[in-house]
Every structure is written in structure tokens, then in C-alpha cells.
Amino acid sequence: MKNLTTLEEHLSKKYGAIGTAQREEFERKSKAFALGELLKEARKEANLSQEELALKAGTSKSYISRIENGNSDIQLTTLFRIIEIGLGKQLTLSIK
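Below the sequence we write its predicted C-alpha cells.
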């Protein structure tokens, strides 16, 4: 138990301290991944393929795929369109 490290210690060792460029890039990518997973889960819950969601939201299947894989930045207006028009759900944002 004495050799255990916290998640913060592990991240700092691997990606640098909070505020460094490498750590900021890791944080950005992890948030993009999390958003993609949320979108994928909601899409599957709605029984829609990526193509069906793209058609409803007015975007492309490849764009939906890139978002779900955390490989694309997304504009807020596009995110609202995908969630609210494509999935028929309500998107709620908060600032902490």
C-alpha cells in the first residue's frame, strides 16, 4: 500500500504538471473522448446508426464517427443540432 500513487501523481509523471502544454493536450483529448463516448451511448440508446444521426442532424457520417472517436473539435451549434435535432434530447451545459 505504501507504493501506491494517486491518479494526479500518475498523470503528472506521464503528462507533466497541470498547466504545461503536454498536460493541457492530454486534458483536451480526454474531454473529447468523454464527449464522444456520451454521444455514442446516446445514439445507440436511440437505436440510430451514425449515418441516420448524421442525416437527421445535417452533417456527415464521417463527422459523427470522428466525434465519437474523440478525433474532432465540435462547434457548440453543431453539438446542439446533433443532440437536440438528431437525438431529440436536450443538452445542458454547466460551468464549475
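The helical segments are 7-15, 21-45, 50-57, 61-68, 76-86.
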